[in-house]
Amino acid sequence: MAVTGPTAKKQFVIVLGLNGLISLVVWFYITTYPGLIWSATSSMTACLPAKSKDLKEWKAENLTNSFSVEVNFEPTDNSKTYRDRNTLLYEKCETLPVDRVRGRRPIYFFAKSKSLAFCKVPKAGSTFVGTVVAALELRKKPGNMFHMSLAIVHGQNEVDFSTLSKYSSSVVKKILVTRNPYTRLFSAFTDKYFVLGARPKTIATKKGKGRFEMRNGYCGYDISFQEFLDYFTDLHIAGKEVEEHTMPVSSLCYPCMVHYNILCKQETLTADIEYVLSVTNISEPRRQTVMELIRSKSLNDTIYASVSYHMLYFNLYPNDCSSKILLMEKVWKVFQLQGYISLSLTFPINSFQNLTDFDAENVTTLILEQIQSRPLSKSQMSKQRQIALAEAYSSIKPSTIARVQRMFAQDFHLFGYDKTIPTRHGKNH
């Protein structure tokens, strides 16, 4: 029976008032937190491919295995810096079609006891982040966890997205770490392709290149930075899978599909991680312990972690490098490119030959002694790194640069990095 008279008018006023209240709440969130009100409808529209014929393929690839768009109506945090980063990211997501580079699906370093998950991005502080997560998950007070091989951290406390999605998105805080594509790719080359391992061997086989000859022996393979860039951009153009060190962050972590609470940058990673810890549900003693661990990280730890990692690869690929001394000569060059060792210092081959115990600790001690003989200030280290980066890209073909820019277009756009080629005086952040 229809309600009429005063009762009907009263109900109408109540409904009208409720609708007005709801509208007011929605208006408040939209004006206060633009970009954070990310509805399922608008997010799906933003992520759809530009061409409708790609729709079935996109759905099959992105909406299976528990992938779904998350709706988060809570403000990311109370800091303007991090709030602005997220606001800009999700506003840009609304204007971009899907252009994902083929490769592995998202993996997370997951501190389960702290409900904290970091998307794993190789060559964007992933070892640092993995170490922090491991320290958070330890029940006892951690020792110097940065003084270990780079390889030890990886594989621990890792989950895929389908596992992570079983936990409530309102409980688990998700963190994304980005890095300038130019510096990330050069770091991938020097660390994973220049020295030793299966990756450079694969390119050498494809390109018909031989071993990298040195002195009276050889170590690794004769792969240039140009050939490295051409190799993975060729794979992308051919629609083939690309290995994780050369995948864009946007393809590794799906930022336009998964809502990240905090956006960190490798360029400011220590400060960003300290901020993450300050807004995470962690006991104060544990927070202080982990922050002290982070602040105590030294050059000794950095050198040791890298040396022990490359010595592990020497044992894994004994036929690819004729001596440990030649291996360390290549690692020495990497440390110079990274700004740790002055370019004015030549490789001290006699000192390495005189080592009685050729292990990671003794090699690290020797390298640190050489560094202290001609130490660099922080500004000198930064300048040396920037010059090495600029010189590396100065010899790359313009057509290859254009392919890199297209492949990493979403990273440049979403995370605010300059597409200009690195220069000797530029920061490119």
TrEMBL record:
Keyword check for RNA-binding: no
GO cellular component: Golgi membrane
Pfam families: Sulfotransfer_2 (PF03567)
EC number: 2.8.2.-
GO biological process: carbohydrate biosynthetic process
Topology within the bilayer: Single-pass type II membrane protein
Localization, UniProt: Golgi apparatus membrane
Molecular-function annotations in GO: sulfotransferase activity
Sorted UniProt keywords: Carbohydrate metabolism, Glycoprotein, Golgi apparatus, Membrane, Signal-anchor, Transferase, Transmembrane, Transmembrane helix
Membrane-crossing residue ranges in chain numbering: 12-30
Record-linked InterPro entries: Carb_sulfotrans_8-10, Sulfotransferase
Similarity section: Belongs to the sulfotransferase 2 family.
PANTHER family reported in the protein's UniProt record: CARBOHYDRATE SULFOTRANSFERASE
Descriptive protein name: Carbohydrate sulfotransferase
